[in-house]
Amino acid sequence: MNLNEFLKNIKNKNFWSKQRVLFLISANYPVLFLKKMFKKLEEQKLLPASLQKLSFDLMDNSQILSHLQQSFLGQSIFWWLGEYNFRKTDKNKLKILEFFLKYKGPNFISLYVDDNRFPIKINDQMKVEIDEKINYKQFKSILLFFEKQFNSSKINLIKNLFENKRKISIELVCSIIDYLEFVNANNVDIFQEYLLSILNFENSSLYKLTEYFFCKKTANFFTLWSKIYKDYPEIFWINFWAEKLWKAYYVVRYLKQEDFATARSLSFSLPFNFIKEDWKNVDLTTIKKSYDFLYNADFAIKTGSKFCILDLFYVNYFTNNFSQGFRL
Questions:
Q1: Of the residues 14, 16, 77, 101, which has the fewest C-beta atoms closer than 10 A?
Q2: DSSP result, 229-276
Q3: What does the pLDDT look like over 22-60, one tens digit per residue?
Q4: What count of Cα atoms within 13 Å lies in the side-chain half-sphere of residue 276?
Q5: How does DSSP assign 124-156, residue by residue?
Protein backbone atom coordinates (compact mmCIF):
# COMPACT_ATOMS: atom_id res chain seq x y z
CA MET A 1 0.00 0.00 0.00
CA ASN A 2 1.13 3.56 -0.51
CA LEU A 3 1.54 6.09 2.29
CA ASN A 4 -1.86 7.74 1.75
CA GLU A 5 -3.59 4.37 1.97
CA PHE A 6 -1.68 3.51 5.13
CA LEU A 7 -2.53 6.79 6.88
CA LYS A 8 -6.18 6.15 6.06
CA ASN A 9 -6.30 2.42 6.81
CA ILE A 10 -4.46 2.58 10.12
CA LYS A 11 -7.41 4.41 11.68
CA ASN A 12 -9.43 1.23 11.22
CA LYS A 13 -9.40 -0.63 14.56
CA ASN A 14 -9.02 -3.95 12.70
CA PHE A 15 -5.88 -2.88 10.83
CA TRP A 16 -3.42 -4.68 13.12
CA SER A 17 -5.51 -7.85 13.27
CA LYS A 18 -4.40 -8.60 9.71
CA GLN A 19 -0.63 -8.39 10.19
CA ARG A 20 2.08 -8.44 12.80
CA VAL A 21 4.89 -7.09 10.62
CA LEU A 22 5.02 -3.85 8.66
CA PHE A 23 7.84 -2.98 6.25
CA LEU A 24 8.32 0.73 5.52
CA ILE A 25 9.97 1.11 2.13
CA SER A 26 11.51 4.09 0.36
CA ALA A 27 14.47 4.99 -1.83
CA ASN A 28 16.04 6.93 1.06
CA TYR A 29 15.52 6.59 4.80
CA PRO A 30 12.95 9.30 5.81
CA VAL A 31 14.17 9.53 9.40
CA LEU A 32 12.43 12.77 10.36
CA PHE A 33 9.09 11.77 8.85
CA LEU A 34 9.06 8.33 10.49
CA LYS A 35 10.00 9.83 13.85
CA LYS A 36 7.04 12.22 13.62
CA MET A 37 4.73 9.53 12.28
CA PHE A 38 5.34 7.09 15.15
CA LYS A 39 5.02 9.89 17.68
CA LYS A 40 1.62 10.78 16.21
CA LEU A 41 0.51 7.15 16.09
CA GLU A 42 1.32 6.90 19.80
CA GLU A 43 -0.59 10.09 20.59
CA GLN A 44 -3.64 8.91 18.68
CA LYS A 45 -3.40 5.45 20.26
CA LEU A 46 -3.31 3.83 16.82
CA LEU A 47 -0.56 1.36 17.67
CA PRO A 48 -1.66 -2.07 18.90
CA ALA A 49 0.81 -2.12 21.80
CA SER A 50 3.37 -0.01 23.64
CA LEU A 51 6.10 1.29 21.31
CA GLN A 52 9.67 0.29 22.07
CA LYS A 53 12.83 0.43 19.99
CA LEU A 54 15.54 -2.03 19.06
CA SER A 55 18.61 -1.21 16.98
CA PHE A 56 20.60 -3.44 14.65
CA ASP A 57 23.52 -1.09 15.28
CA LEU A 58 23.55 -1.97 18.98
CA MET A 59 22.53 -5.66 18.97
CA ASP A 60 23.34 -8.70 16.91
CA ASN A 61 20.65 -10.70 15.13
CA SER A 62 20.30 -13.33 17.84
CA GLN A 63 19.62 -10.68 20.49
CA ILE A 64 17.04 -9.01 18.24
CA LEU A 65 15.26 -12.32 17.62
CA SER A 66 15.23 -13.11 21.31
CA HIS A 67 13.42 -9.86 22.11
CA LEU A 68 10.91 -10.31 19.29
CA GLN A 69 9.92 -13.80 20.44
CA GLN A 70 9.34 -12.87 24.07
CA SER A 71 6.44 -11.19 25.84
CA PHE A 72 6.29 -9.89 29.39
CA LEU A 73 3.34 -11.21 31.43
CA GLY A 74 1.43 -11.80 28.22
CA GLN A 75 1.68 -8.14 27.13
CA SER A 76 2.55 -7.47 23.48
CA ILE A 77 5.11 -4.86 22.41
CA PHE A 78 5.27 -2.88 19.19
CA TRP A 79 8.93 -3.09 18.23
CA TRP A 80 10.33 -0.37 15.95
CA LEU A 81 13.61 -1.69 14.52
CA GLY A 82 14.65 1.34 12.50
CA GLU A 83 16.65 0.64 9.36
CA TYR A 84 17.64 -2.92 8.49
CA ASN A 85 20.74 -2.51 6.31
CA PHE A 86 21.12 -5.71 4.34
CA ARG A 87 24.59 -4.91 3.13
CA LYS A 88 25.95 -5.19 6.68
CA THR A 89 24.04 -8.18 7.99
CA ASP A 90 25.72 -11.53 8.57
CA LYS A 91 25.20 -14.81 6.74
CA ASN A 92 21.92 -15.37 8.57
CA LYS A 93 20.20 -12.46 6.84
CA LEU A 94 17.92 -14.68 4.75
CA LYS A 95 16.93 -16.52 7.90
CA ILE A 96 16.08 -13.18 9.50
CA LEU A 97 14.00 -12.18 6.49
CA GLU A 98 12.09 -15.43 6.57
CA PHE A 99 11.48 -14.87 10.27
CA PHE A 100 9.99 -11.44 9.59
CA LEU A 101 7.79 -12.70 6.75
CA LYS A 102 6.41 -15.63 8.77
CA TYR A 103 6.19 -13.86 12.11
CA LYS A 104 2.85 -14.41 13.91
CA GLY A 105 3.56 -12.90 17.34
CA PRO A 106 3.47 -12.47 20.24
CA ASN A 107 4.58 -8.91 19.42
CA PHE A 108 4.33 -6.48 16.50
CA ILE A 109 7.27 -5.45 14.31
CA SER A 110 7.99 -2.54 12.00
CA LEU A 111 11.23 -1.74 10.20
CA TYR A 112 12.53 0.37 7.36
CA VAL A 113 14.20 -1.20 4.32
CA ASP A 114 15.70 0.35 1.22
CA ASP A 115 13.63 -0.75 -1.76
CA ASN A 116 16.74 -1.13 -3.92
CA ARG A 117 18.40 -3.53 -1.46
CA PHE A 118 15.50 -5.75 -0.50
CA PRO A 119 16.14 -9.22 -1.98
CA ILE A 120 12.65 -10.78 -1.78
CA LYS A 121 9.06 -9.92 -2.61
CA ILE A 122 6.82 -8.64 0.18
CA ASN A 123 3.07 -9.02 0.35
CA ASP A 124 1.35 -5.67 -0.34
CA GLN A 125 -0.46 -5.81 3.01
CA MET A 126 2.88 -6.00 4.84
CA LYS A 127 4.51 -2.95 3.27
CA VAL A 128 4.06 0.79 3.08
CA GLU A 129 5.75 2.45 0.12
CA ILE A 130 6.83 6.01 0.94
CA ASP A 131 7.66 8.34 -1.95
CA GLU A 132 10.92 10.21 -1.50
CA LYS A 133 9.27 13.31 -2.97
CA ILE A 134 5.57 14.14 -2.68
CA ASN A 135 3.08 16.36 -4.47
CA TYR A 136 0.58 18.81 -3.00
CA LYS A 137 -2.19 16.22 -2.75
CA GLN A 138 0.05 13.91 -0.73
CA PHE A 139 1.13 16.86 1.40
CA LYS A 140 -2.52 17.56 2.33
CA SER A 141 -2.93 13.94 3.45
CA ILE A 142 0.13 14.22 5.68
CA LEU A 143 -1.08 17.54 7.08
CA LEU A 144 -4.45 15.95 7.89
CA PHE A 145 -2.77 12.97 9.59
CA PHE A 146 -0.62 15.23 11.76
CA GLU A 147 -3.75 17.26 12.59
CA LYS A 148 -2.13 20.53 11.59
CA GLN A 149 -4.45 23.42 10.79
CA PHE A 150 -2.98 26.45 9.02
CA ASN A 151 -4.75 29.64 8.02
CA SER A 152 -5.35 30.60 4.39
CA SER A 153 -2.14 32.66 4.07
CA LYS A 154 0.02 29.69 5.13
CA ILE A 155 -1.90 27.29 2.88
CA ASN A 156 -1.38 29.66 -0.06
CA LEU A 157 2.32 29.79 0.76
CA ILE A 158 2.48 25.99 0.64
CA LYS A 159 0.64 25.95 -2.70
CA ASN A 160 3.16 28.43 -4.09
CA LEU A 161 6.03 26.20 -2.98
CA PHE A 162 4.57 23.20 -4.79
CA GLU A 163 3.89 25.29 -7.89
CA ASN A 164 7.55 26.26 -7.82
CA LYS A 165 8.86 22.71 -7.37
CA ARG A 166 5.91 20.37 -8.15
CA LYS A 167 7.34 17.73 -5.80
CA ILE A 168 9.20 18.29 -2.55
CA SER A 169 11.22 15.92 -0.36
CA ILE A 170 9.06 14.39 2.37
CA GLU A 171 11.82 15.21 4.87
CA LEU A 172 11.76 18.86 3.82
CA VAL A 173 7.96 18.85 4.06
CA CYS A 174 8.30 17.89 7.75
CA SER A 175 10.64 20.81 8.31
CA ILE A 176 8.27 23.19 6.51
CA ILE A 177 5.41 22.09 8.76
CA ASP A 178 7.57 22.74 11.82
CA TYR A 179 8.61 26.16 10.56
CA LEU A 180 5.06 27.23 9.71
CA GLU A 181 3.86 26.43 13.21
CA PHE A 182 5.92 29.21 14.75
CA VAL A 183 5.65 31.79 11.95
CA ASN A 184 3.28 34.64 12.70
CA ALA A 185 0.52 34.91 10.09
CA ASN A 186 1.56 38.52 9.46
CA ASN A 187 5.08 37.41 8.46
CA VAL A 188 4.13 34.70 5.98
CA ASP A 189 5.13 36.72 2.90
CA ILE A 190 8.60 37.34 4.33
CA PHE A 191 8.92 33.70 5.35
CA GLN A 192 8.09 32.53 1.83
CA GLU A 193 11.42 33.95 0.65
CA TYR A 194 13.19 31.79 3.20
CA LEU A 195 11.35 28.62 2.17
CA LEU A 196 12.10 29.26 -1.47
CA SER A 197 15.75 29.70 -0.51
CA ILE A 198 15.64 26.27 1.16
CA LEU A 199 14.28 24.72 -2.01
CA ASN A 200 17.27 26.28 -3.78
CA PHE A 201 19.45 26.00 -0.70
CA GLU A 202 22.86 25.71 -2.32
CA ASN A 203 22.47 29.15 -3.90
CA SER A 204 21.38 30.93 -0.71
CA SER A 205 23.20 32.98 1.93
CA LEU A 206 21.85 30.55 4.54
CA TYR A 207 23.81 27.79 2.84
CA LYS A 208 27.05 29.77 3.16
CA LEU A 209 26.26 30.66 6.77
CA THR A 210 25.74 26.99 7.58
CA GLU A 211 28.99 26.10 5.86
CA TYR A 212 30.94 28.69 7.90
CA PHE A 213 29.20 27.49 11.06
CA PHE A 214 30.23 23.84 10.81
CA CYS A 215 33.79 24.48 9.62
CA LYS A 216 34.05 27.22 12.30
CA LYS A 217 35.25 29.98 10.01
CA THR A 218 34.43 32.53 12.68
CA ALA A 219 35.27 35.74 10.80
CA ASN A 220 33.38 34.70 7.67
CA PHE A 221 30.43 33.55 9.75
CA PHE A 222 29.97 36.78 11.68
CA THR A 223 30.54 38.96 8.60
CA LEU A 224 27.67 37.22 6.83
CA TRP A 225 25.59 36.92 10.01
CA SER A 226 25.69 40.69 10.53
CA LYS A 227 24.13 41.16 7.09
CA ILE A 228 21.23 38.70 7.32
CA TYR A 229 20.35 38.06 10.97
CA LYS A 230 17.62 40.73 11.01
CA ASP A 231 15.84 39.05 8.08
CA TYR A 232 14.32 36.45 10.42
CA PRO A 233 13.05 36.48 14.03
CA GLU A 234 15.08 35.03 16.89
CA ILE A 235 12.85 31.97 17.24
CA PHE A 236 13.50 31.17 13.58
CA TRP A 237 17.26 31.06 14.17
CA ILE A 238 16.81 28.83 17.22
CA ASN A 239 14.86 26.30 15.16
CA PHE A 240 17.12 26.70 12.13
CA TRP A 241 20.28 25.77 14.04
CA ALA A 242 18.52 23.07 16.05
CA GLU A 243 17.49 21.35 12.82
CA LYS A 244 20.98 21.62 11.33
CA LEU A 245 22.60 20.26 14.50
CA TRP A 246 20.11 17.39 14.72
CA LYS A 247 20.84 16.37 11.13
CA ALA A 248 24.58 16.85 11.55
CA TYR A 249 24.64 14.61 14.63
CA TYR A 250 23.07 11.66 12.82
CA VAL A 251 24.93 12.24 9.56
CA VAL A 252 28.27 12.14 11.40
CA ARG A 253 27.20 9.09 13.41
CA TYR A 254 26.23 7.16 10.28
CA LEU A 255 29.34 8.25 8.39
CA LYS A 256 31.50 6.97 11.23
CA GLN A 257 29.63 3.66 10.96
CA GLU A 258 30.29 3.71 7.18
CA ASP A 259 26.55 3.65 6.54
CA PHE A 260 26.86 6.09 3.67
CA ALA A 261 23.36 5.57 2.23
CA THR A 262 21.61 6.55 5.45
CA ALA A 263 23.97 9.49 6.00
CA ARG A 264 23.21 10.73 2.49
CA SER A 265 19.45 10.45 3.06
CA LEU A 266 19.75 12.72 6.11
CA SER A 267 22.15 15.24 4.62
CA PHE A 268 19.70 17.49 2.80
CA SER A 269 20.32 21.18 3.64
CA LEU A 270 23.76 20.43 5.09
CA PRO A 271 26.71 21.93 3.14
CA PHE A 272 28.49 19.76 0.61
CA ASN A 273 31.87 20.39 2.27
CA PHE A 274 30.47 19.16 5.56
CA ILE A 275 29.47 15.84 3.98
CA LYS A 276 32.74 15.55 2.09
CA GLU A 277 35.35 16.60 4.66
CA ASP A 278 34.27 18.77 7.58
CA TRP A 279 32.32 16.04 9.36
CA LYS A 280 35.62 14.37 10.25
CA ASN A 281 36.43 17.26 12.59
CA VAL A 282 33.06 17.22 14.36
CA ASP A 283 32.79 16.11 17.96
CA LEU A 284 29.39 14.46 18.54
CA THR A 285 29.33 15.48 22.19
CA THR A 286 29.70 19.13 21.17
CA ILE A 287 26.88 18.79 18.65
CA LYS A 288 24.63 17.17 21.22
CA LYS A 289 25.40 19.80 23.89
CA SER A 290 24.78 22.57 21.35
CA TYR A 291 21.43 21.05 20.42
CA ASP A 292 20.48 20.68 24.09
CA PHE A 293 21.29 24.35 24.62
CA LEU A 294 18.95 25.36 21.78
CA TYR A 295 16.21 23.07 23.08
CA ASN A 296 16.33 24.89 26.41
CA ALA A 297 16.62 28.24 24.64
CA ASP A 298 13.45 27.54 22.68
CA PHE A 299 11.59 26.90 25.94
CA ALA A 300 13.08 30.02 27.54
CA ILE A 301 12.01 32.28 24.66
CA LYS A 302 8.49 30.85 24.59
CA THR A 303 8.16 31.51 28.32
CA GLY A 304 9.16 35.14 28.03
CA SER A 305 12.96 35.28 28.27
CA LYS A 306 14.54 38.34 26.62
CA PHE A 307 18.15 37.34 27.34
CA CYS A 308 20.64 37.46 24.44
CA ILE A 309 20.40 33.73 23.86
CA LEU A 310 21.79 33.64 20.32
CA ASP A 311 24.84 35.66 21.33
CA LEU A 312 25.48 33.24 24.19
CA PHE A 313 24.99 30.28 21.85
CA TYR A 314 27.51 31.53 19.27
CA VAL A 315 30.11 32.50 21.87
CA ASN A 316 30.03 29.07 23.46
CA TYR A 317 29.92 27.22 20.15
CA PHE A 318 32.84 29.01 18.52
CA THR A 319 34.97 28.93 21.69
CA ASN A 320 34.30 25.19 22.17
CA ASN A 321 32.67 25.67 25.57
CA PHE A 322 29.95 23.16 24.75
CA SER A 323 32.56 20.40 24.58
CA GLN A 324 33.39 21.27 28.20
CA GLY A 325 29.82 20.78 29.32
CA PHE A 326 28.42 24.35 29.23
CA ARG A 327 24.61 24.39 29.58
CA LEU A 328 21.89 27.02 29.60
A1: 14
A2: GGGS-HHHHHHHHHHHHHHHHHHHHHHHTT-HHHHHHH-TTS-HHHHH
A3: 999 988 888 889 988 999 999 999 999 999 988 777 777
A4: 4
A5: GGGEEE--SEE-HHHHHHHHHHTT----HHHHH
